[in-house]
Design goal:
Number of strands: 0
Largest sheet: none
Radius of gyration: 21 Å
Mean pLDDT: 76
Distance between the termini: 7 Å
Helix content: 55-70%
Low-confidence stretches: 164-169
Order of helices and strands: HHHHHHHHHH
């Protein structure tokens, strides 16, 4: 069990306790809400830091990442928010795309980091398959777990589901069961 690894068995035991009428104890709903916000905060932190790291990597690259991204842009592999990107838009961004290409792409909406698939695609385009493979080895499904929970946050926070175990765990061995 996931909580056993973290030494939080008492939380899981408390959540399992029921009143004589079968209803969960008062702590149950509060603890679920706290965990939901921990999950959402963790995803938000990852999403923000991953985007910042990617942008810094591209901005400080010696040229290969920018060349890869330029080719991807021409090949329509990057998001194209506006096919009619005007010089005034580039000027108003306040970013010199020649010296800060990663920052520029994010500012004009050509790259986003709202899901793991898109993030890995951008890593692969800019830095190659070795970086994606390294990310996969280090990540060990935990980021995917955060993304899964983030995707059901509206349902969870609305109280429409009471048990996180209904989420499919077949593809991710680290998902709470």
């Amino acid at each position: 069990r996931y909580f056993d690894v973290l030494g939080l068995q008492y939380v899981e035991a408390s959540l399992a306790q029921r009143r004589p009428d079968g209803q969960p104890m008062a702590m149950h709903d509060a603890t679920e809400a706290i965990w939901a916000f921990v999950i959402l905060g963790s995803w938000t932190a990852f999403e923000s830091l991953a985007g910042d790291l990617w942008v810094a990597g591209v901005d400080n690259d010696k040229g290969q990442a920018v060349a890869n991204l330029t080719f991807a842009s021409v090949s329509n592999k990057l998001k194209r928010p506006d096919d009619n990107l005007r010089p005034t838009t580039i000027y108003k961004s306040g970013i010199n795309p020649k010296t800060n290409y990663g920052s520029f792409l994010r500012a004009v909406g050509s790259v986003t980091f709202s899901n793991t698939t898109g993030h890995q695609k951008l890593l692969r385009i800019a830095f190659g398959n070795d970086v994606v493979r390294l990310f996969d080895e280090i990540e060990n499904d935990y980021i995917e777990v955060l993304a899964t929970f983030r995707n059901i946050k509206g349902i969870l926070l609305a109280g429409r589901i009471r048990n996180l175990s209904i989420v499919s765990t077949e593809d991710s061995p680290n998902l709470i069961r």
